[in-house]
Amino acid sequence: MYKILRTILFCFPPEPVHHFSMNGLRLLCSIGFKNILAKMFRPKSNHSCTAFGIQFSNKVGLAAGFDKNAKYLRELECLGFGCVEIGTVTPLPQAGNDKPRVFRLPKDKALINRMGFNNDGVKVVAERLSNWRNSRLIVGGNIGKNKVTPNEDAWKDYEICFKELYPYVDYFVVNVSSPNTPGLRELQEKESLRKILTHLQQLNVSLPVRSGGNLSKGEKPLLLKIAPDLTQEQIDDVIDLAMEIKLDGLVATNTTISRVGLTTSGSRIKAIGAGGLSGLPVKQRSTEVIRYIHQKTNGQIPIIASGGIFTGADAKEKLEAGASLVQVWTGFIYEGPGIVKNICKTLNSQ
Ligand SMILES: Cc1cc2nc3c(=O)[nH]c(=O)nc-3n(C[C@H](O)[C@H](O)[C@H](O)COP(=O)(O)O)c2cc1C
Question: What is the average pLDDT score of the chain?
Answer without folding.
Answer: 94
